[in-house]
Write a structure and sequence with these properties.
The chain has 231 residues and is of the alpha/beta class. It is built from 9 helices and 8 strands. The strands form 2 sheets. It has a 4-stranded mixed beta sheet with strand order 1-2-4-3. A 4-stranded mixed beta sheet has the order 5-6-8-7. Helix 2 packs antiparallel against helix 3, helix 7 packs antiparallel against helix 8 and helix 7 packs parallel to helix 9.
Length: 231
């Protein structure tokens, strides 16, 4: 099997489902690829394939497959991505809340913010300052509780559920990718703090992330510069 394929893990309705090297996809095909993808979202994925990024904390694949099945079906019939995503998100949310795993961890009608201490897994002191704190978090719990489409990272200027002055990194991230995603987030956060819209700041962050993925020798300097500029 050639990159980015790692192995075939299933087949549903004549669609082959592959575990792929997400880092390779982000480096050479699209830095916008996150946990999973299908052809009508990413044209480089063949029509009869679903791709799922290898996970450091596996267990969510069943949700991703069901999500893609609905998204793929709707988009194949002409629905736009945003509408198909919203429909698939609602269906995925319902499925997550039916599981014993969810019921054991989440109390009905509880204040969601009370779960934030449980979401934290590790403070990255090396990249934290007096102005920002960088946390590795339980990504599955974030998706269960707050935002089904949370992937890779986020910060307080985009997500209201993230406390002020914090950047969150999904614990599903491969260790080799943590600094690239962090660079994206702190660059985007700095620009949004300065008044940029999310879409403009995200585009700029994607560009600097892409540059450093192809010029890794520049990463350490660029990352430190962006962290120091965050307020």
């Amino acid at each position: 099997m050639k990159k980015p394929y790692i192995k075939k893990i299933d087949a549903v309705l004549k669609i082959n489902i592959y575990l792929v090297d997400g880092e390779y996809v982000r480096d050479f095909l699209s830095e916008e690829f996150t946990n999973f993808g299908q052809h009508f979202r990413f044209r480089f994925i063949p029509k009869n394939e679903f791709w799922i990024d290898k996970e450091r904390t596996p267990g969510e694949e069943k949700y991703f497959i069901d999500h893609m099945l609905l998204e793929h079906l709707l988009m194949s019939k002409g629905m736009g991505y945003d509408d198909a995503l919203a429909r698939a998100d609602r269906a995925e949310t319902k499925e997550r809340r039916k599981t014993e795993y969810f019921k054991k961890r989440i109390r009905p009608h509880a204040n969601k913010c009370a779960y934030i201490p449980k979401i934290y897994k590790r403070l990255l002191k090396r990249y934290s300052t007096e102005k920002i704190r960088v946390w590795i978090v339980d990504g599955e719990m974030v998706r269960d509780l707050f935002f089904i489409d949370y992937t890779e990272g986020g910060h307080d200027k985009v997500y209201k559920f993230i406390p002020p002055g914090e950047v969150w990194l999904d614990d599903d991230l491969q260790l080799k990718e943590i600094r690239y995603v962090l660079l994206h987030e702190v660059h985007e956060r700095r620009l949004m703090a300065g008044g940029w819209t999310y879409f403009k700041a995200h585009r700029s962050a994607s560009q600097i992330e892409y540059f450093c993925r192809h010029h890794p020798g520049k990463l350490a300097v660029k990352l430190r510069e962006e962290i120091n500029k965050n307020k």
